[in-house]
Amino acid sequence: MTHKGFFITGTDTGVGKTVVTTTLARLLVLKGIDVGIMKPMETGVPLIPDNQSDAERLIAAAEVPEPLEEVSPIRLQTPASPYQACLLEGVDLDLSVISENFLKISNRHSLTLVEGVGGLVVPLTRTQMLTDLIKELNLPLILVSRLSLGTLNHTLMTVRIANQLGLSIKGIIFNQSQAGEISKVEAGCPEIIKELSGVDILGTLPFRKSPFGPVKLDDTTYSRLIEKLV
Question: Which one, of 156, 153, 174, lies nearest residue 221 by Cα?
Answer without folding.
Answer: 174
